[in-house]
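Bumping my old thread because nobody answered last time. Still need a sequence for this structure:
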C-alpha cells in the first residue's frame, strides 16, 4: 500500500494536471460490483465494441473465455478503451468456462446468463444486492451448455420485433445501461472501488500514459528499496 502510493505520486509527476484530474474524477465512477464475462466471442468489431461499452459504463473488469475462439478486438473500434480496463483471459485449457465462473463465484459474484430461459427475469428486475457477473455468448450459438449449467440466474433483454436477438455488442450495452444506472441509485450499496483498488487502478492508468513506463518503474522500484 505504501509503495503503491509512493509510486503513484512519482508517476503523477510525469503526467499533465489535466490527465491527473481526469484519473481522479473517473475512478470515482469505476466499479467491480458489475463485471462482464464473454464466452467464445470472436468477431473483432463486436469484441472491441464491448470493451468501449464497459469503459463508458465504468465497468473495470472484463473476463474473456477462449475455448474455441481467440478474442481479438479491432483496435480501430475500441478507440483505446482496452488500456483502461482489466482484461482477464481464460485460455490455458480446452475447456475454460468452469474455471472462470468458479473463480468469480469464489469472489462473491452471482453468475447471470443473458439468455431467454424458463426461470429468467427482465434485466431491470435483476437484484443487485450482491456483485453480478453478466455472461454473454456468441451471436451464432449463444452460451454453451456448460455456461448455462453453472449460471445462478438468467435474464433477458426487452424485445418487441421479429428478430430473435440483439447484436452481442448491443446486448452488452443495453444490459450495462440498465444494471449500472440502477446500481448507482441503490441506497447503502458499496459499488465503488475500495481506496486500495482505486490507487492500484490509477497506477495502472498512469503507467499507460507515461513514456517508457517500464524503465521508469524499474528506476522507481530501486529508489524505493533504497529508502527502506
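Sorry it took so long. Here it is:
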Amino acid at each position: 500500500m505504501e509503495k503503491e502510493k509512493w509510486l503513484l505520486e512519482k508517476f503523477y509527476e510525469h503526467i499533465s494536471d489535466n490527465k491527473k484530474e481526469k484519473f481522479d474524477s473517473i475512478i470515482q465512477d469505476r466499479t467491480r460490483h458489475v463485471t462482464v464475462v464473454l464466452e467464445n466471442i470472436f468477431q473483432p468489431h463486436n469484441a472491441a465494441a464491448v470493451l468501449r461499452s464497459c469503459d463508458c459504463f465504468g465497468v473495470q473488469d472484463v473476463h474473456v473465455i477462449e475455448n474455441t475462439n481467440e478474442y481479438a478486438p479491432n483496435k480501430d473500434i475500441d478507440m483505446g478503451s482496452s488500456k483502461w480496463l482489466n482484461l482477464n483471459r481464460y485460455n490455458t485449457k480446452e475447456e475454460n468456462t468452469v474455471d472462470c465462473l468458479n473463480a468469480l463465484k469464489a469472489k462473491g459474484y452471482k453468475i447471470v446468463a443473458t439468455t431467454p430461459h424458463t426461470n429468467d427475469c427482465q434485466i431491470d428486475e435483476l437484484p443487485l444486492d450482491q456483485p453480478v457477473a453478466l455472461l454473454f455468448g456468441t451471436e451464432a450459438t449463444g452460451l454453451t451448455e456448460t455456461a448455462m449449467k453453472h449460471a445462478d440466474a438468467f435474464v433477458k433483454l426487452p424485445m418487441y420485433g421479429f428478430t430473435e436477438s440483439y447484436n452481442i455488442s448491443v446486448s452488452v450495452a443495453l444490459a450495462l445501461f440498465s444494471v449500472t444506472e440502477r446500481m448507482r441509485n441503490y441506497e447503502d450499496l458499496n459499488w465503488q472501488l475500495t481506496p486500495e483498488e482505486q490507487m492500484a487502478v490509477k497506477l495502472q492508468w498512469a503507467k499507460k500514459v507515461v513514456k517508457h513506463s517500464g524503465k521508469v518503474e524499474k528506476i522507481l522500484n530501486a529508489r524505493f528499496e533504497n529508502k527502506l
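The chain has a mean pLDDT of 90. Let me know if any region looks off to you.
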